[in-house]
Write a structure and sequence with these properties.
This protein is an alpha/beta fold and 199 residues long. It has ten helices and six strands, in the order βαβαβαβαβαβααααα. It has two domains: 124 residues, Rossmann fold, CATH 3.40.50; 64 residues, Arc Repressor Mutant, subunit A (Orthogonal Bundle), CATH 1.10.10.
């Protein structure tokens, strides 16, 4: 079972998410929180596999809550679920350690699929979010995912495993990233990505 903590300050949205997730045989909701501070406390106590978190909340916003959860547990996997498409929320969420960023208009299947993917160790972003973040550099969705994993310190073999592709495919993506970011090596590419707020 994938143990999930649901965090949203709107009771109807929170209950809707819980109801959707409870329909999945392999997902169990182990906690619910109405603000970021409560989320940090519950994450510390329950150690969920996945925390599904809104960005804008009272007491403590989702991004700061995400930072604190990851400080407590660097392995914590958090998916940001929000109505906001703009980079003021996307980039801070990614920098704080979000493993996924989905819009609230995602279907039950998309939401459950995202939870399963992130629980399996993948990074997952709504394609629209990736397009917005990567557009400036001309990166594809897959190249952006590879870049994120590179920034986390994964080698080509580990990236191939995480993305279910061959190592040769990863090498091609890495070469394309180097070319598009005008870099010669992984460290320079990651540094350039940080400077351009791509990760």
């Amino acid at each position: 079972m994938i143990r999930v903590l649901v965090v949203d300050d709107h009771p109807v949205v929170r209950q809707g998410l819980i109801t959707m997730l409870e329909l999945e045989d392999d997902i169990e909701v182990v906690g619910r929180a109405a603000d970021g501070e409560e989320a940090v406390t519950l994450a510390r106590r329950e150690r969920p596999d996945i925390t599904l978190m809104d960005v804008q909340m009272p007491v403590l916003d989702g991004i700061e809550a995400l930072r604190r959860i990851r400080l407590d547990d660097p392995q914590a996997r958090v998916i940001v679920l929000t109505t906001y498409r703009n980079e003021d929320y996307i980039f801070p969420s990614l920098r704080a350690g979000a493993r996924g960023y989905l819009l609230k208009d995602s279907s039950r299947e998309e939401l459950a699929g995202a939870i399963r993917a992130v629980a399996a160790g993948e990074s997952l972003l709504d394609p629209e979010m990736v397009d917005a973040a990567a557009d400036d550099a001309g990166l594809t969705v897959r190249e952006f995912e590879v870049l994120r994993l590179m920034a986390d310190g994964h080698n080509n073999s580990q990236i191939a495993t995480a993305l279910f592709v061959s190592e040769n495919t990863v090498k091609t993506h890495v070469s394309n990233i180097f070319a598009k970011l005008d870099c010669r090596d992984r460290a320079a590419a990651v540094l350039q990505a940080w400077k351009r707020h791509l990760i």
